[in-house]
Amino acid sequence: MNPGGQAQKQCWQCSTLNDINASRCSACGSYLSGVPTSAPTNAQYPRGPAIQSNYGMIQVPAGSHPIWVVVLLSVLFGGWAGMLVNRQIVKGLVYGLVAGLVFCYVTCCFGFLVWYPLTLIDAILVAMKLNRGQAVKEWEFF
Ligand SMILES: [Zn+2]
């Protein structure tokens, strides 16, 4: 393709080889001077895949979730406190605290015996999932 052995430059527009001293492409007339032969074009930077929506999902690096803080707070105050540490904020407040209080009120605090261990177990199991690096939904249970 280069019989004379002399340097040539490739047209950035149409890839035709032109004389090194040519200022314009002999095929398409594009200006050649100052244009690097391997000028990057937008085609070399394809758009990456759309960022996966992580809305409503909670995920932390594996091994970084403070399980013992969840256990401690859940044992002391009820599972809703552990849910807050698990970043299940809405779930912790609505389900854990409000529903727990209503449940206790309706059942004359008898429901506390059900509510307390359930929320405790839920908070700890979710904390263990998070610590494994698993993504957890805002409203995921156990
Ligand atoms: Zn050209």
Chain-wise SSE layout:
Blueprint: E1 8-10, E2 17-19, E3 57-58, H1 67-77, H2 79-85, H3 89-106, H4 112-131, E4 136-137
Antiparallel strand pairs: 1-2, 3-4
The protein binds zinc ion (ZN).
Zinc ion is lined by residues 11, 13-14, 16, 25, 27-28, 30.
In a nutshell, what does this entry contain?
The protein is mainly α. The strands form 2 sheets. Strands 1-2 form a two-stranded antiparallel sheet. It has a two-stranded antiparallel ribbon with strand order 3-4. 39% of the residues lie in helices and 7% in strands.
Description:
- The model is unreliable at 42-46 and 48-53 (pLDDT under 50).
- The strands form 2 sheets. The protein has a two-stranded antiparallel sheet. Strands 3-4 form a two-stranded antiparallel ribbon.
- The chain has 4 helices and 4 strands, in the order E-E-E-H-H-H-H-E.
- It folds into 2 domains: 7-38; 58-137, no CATH class.
- Helix content is 39%, strand content 7%.
- The chain is mainly alpha-helical and 142 residues long.
- The longest helix is centred in the last third of the chain and has 20 residues, at 112-131.
- Helix 1 packs antiparallel against helix 4, helix 2 (79-85) packs antiparallel against helix 3 (89-106) and helix 2 (79-85) packs parallel to helix 4 (112-131).
- The protein binds zinc ion.
- The site of zinc ion has 8 residues, from loops.
- Residues 11, 13-14, 16, 25, 27-28, 30 line the site of zinc ion (ZN).
Number of strands: 4
Q: Share of helix among residues?
A: 25-40%
Q: How big is the Rg?
A: 32 Å
3D shape: rod-shaped
Bound compounds, please? zinc ion
Q: How many domains, in number, for the residues?
A: 2
Mean pLDDT rating:
81
Q: Point out poorly predicted stretches.
A: 42-46, 48-53
Element pattern in H and E: EEEHHHHE
Beta-strand content: 5-15%
Q: Sheet with the most strands?
A: 2 strands, antiparallel
How would you classify the helix and strand content by structural class? mainly alpha
Distance between the termini: 69 Å
